[in-house]
Amino acid sequence: MRIFNMRIAALAGAVFVGLIAQTIYAQAAKLETAVLAGGCFWCVESDFESVPGVVDVVSGYTGGTTDNPTYKKISKGGTGHYEAVEISYDPDRVSYAQLLHLFLRSIDPTDAGGQFCDRGDSYRTAIFVDGADEKAAAAAAIAEAQTTLGLNIVTPILAASRFYDAEAYHQDYYMSKKIVLTRRGPKSKAEAYKFYREACGRDARVEALWGSDAPFIAHN
């Protein structure tokens, strides 16, 4: 009887594990992605990893002509790549349109030369779309944001191209405890990121532009 009960327990455990695996697979299978360029990818990653329904955000490079781009290569210019993020999200919890709404209000979409203190092609903004539905959603989001802002939005809608993950040291930079050397001495990456974001004027400009509509800024 004891052996029988152990077999039943083992079978039940296997079934339970199988159900968990199926659930995880089903959740993974229904995830969708959005690729957005909003200047420094550390900042965009930090913003969107706080959004309910977003499962993961990966910093990377896209939109260029050079295979296997690196941070060093794109920083020199000439590759055509943007610093961008690939957002994996659950469409049952947050829609593509909602992500675009948040995105446009977290950047300066009136600036064609970069973002904030970061200048040059790799820091330009863009929405990379895959298919007619995403293109239509992006066009609608830009039109709505332009009406709200009352200024010309220059963020382009571009066809999606290959997305290359950035180097490992760029991922989750904003919360890393690894020590790096800065102009203010040794700091954790998280501390260095916080200083960079403030010094670059990102939040100050976004708040000046969007006011209370800026979603990732703590308003007093």
Q: What structural keywords apply?
A:
220 residues; alpha+beta; Peptide Methionine Sulfoxide Reductase, Chain A; 2 domains; six-stranded mixed β-sheet; two-stranded antiparallel ribbon; 7 helices; 10 strands; globular
Q: What's this entry about, in short?
A:
With 220 residues, the chain is an alpha+beta fold. It is 41% helix and 21% strand.
3D architecture notes:
This protein is of the alpha+beta class. It has two domains: 1-30; 31-170, Peptide Methionine Sulfoxide Reductase, Chain A (2-Layer Sandwich), CATH 3.30.1060.10. Helix content is 41%, strand content 21%. It has seven helices and ten strands. The strands form three sheets. It has a six-stranded mixed beta sheet, with helices on one face. Helix 4 runs parallel beside helix 5 (132-149). The protein is globular. The termini are far apart.
Number of strands: 10
User: Radius of gyration, rounded?
Assistant: 21 Å
Which class of secondary structure composition applies to the elements? alpha+beta
How many helices in DSSP terms? 7
State the CATH class of the largest domain. Alpha Beta
Strand content: 15-25%
**How are helices and strands ordered from N to C?**
HEHEHEHEEEHEEEEHH
- Overall pLDDT: 90
Return the CATH topology of the largest domain: Peptide Methionine Sulfoxide Reductase, Chain A
**CATH architecture identity of the largest domain:** 2-Layer Sandwich
Q: What is the CA–CA distance across the termini?
A: 67 Å
**Helix content class:** 40-55%
Strand order of the largest sheet: 7-6-1-3-2-8
- The low-pLDDT segments are 6-12, 14-19
